[in-house]
Amino acid sequence: MSETVRALLIDDHALCRRGLADLLEHRAGVQVVGMTGNPNEASRLIRELTPDIVMMDLRMPQSDGITMLLRLREEGITVPVVILTVSDSEEDLGNAIRAGVRGYLLKDMEPEDIVDSFLRAAQGEVVIAPAMTMKLAHMLQSYGQKNTKEDLLALLTSREREILDHLARGQSNKSIARALDISPDTVKLHVRHILAKLNLTSRVEAAVFAVEHKSVAPNRAVH
User: Fold this and answer.
1) Among the three residues 80, 106, 138, which one is the final residue of a domain in this structure?
2) What pLDDT, on the 0 to 100 scale, is given for residue 142?
3) Range of the domain at 14
4) What is the pTM of this model?
């Protein structure tokens, strides 16, 4: 990456914080600007240090990561957050996605995979631990949407279908904008429309939906 990523680490285990910091700094050149195990202090550090991205544990004694993330969003703080946890619970994954996390990684992943996923998240991609992808797909299937997948996809314009394909490849708004020669703001607006039409709440859900239904209704897009 051309610019150094500035990261803040939030984990109530000191050994985990320090080990993760060493991993990111020595193997990926990430600048860890702060570390804490106290969620209340974390909120202050995010405001003061303005990191590019936050890696956060899911469960901490004083607060859970999802509650903290929702509180930050209510306060207008939009820093990307990647969850790093031992929990492979489908419920925890669903709560994290609905809260708008940039990634959900497991602590038993290989160190190199954690670093690679973290860097991709810092570049704007949504990253999910491989062990959680099937649970994510099952979670989406269980939503019990009234519309069929064909009906939902038929609501998308040609441009929206095109952007959905890029979302399925995990690309950021900037990458999609460059590929389609449009502005990032235009991409952002299209993504918002896609989520609304498909009854989804995040880019992750849209990406999984696109992968699952890639060949569905290819000629039924609305122009």
Assistant:
1) 138
2) 63
3) 6-138
4) 0.66
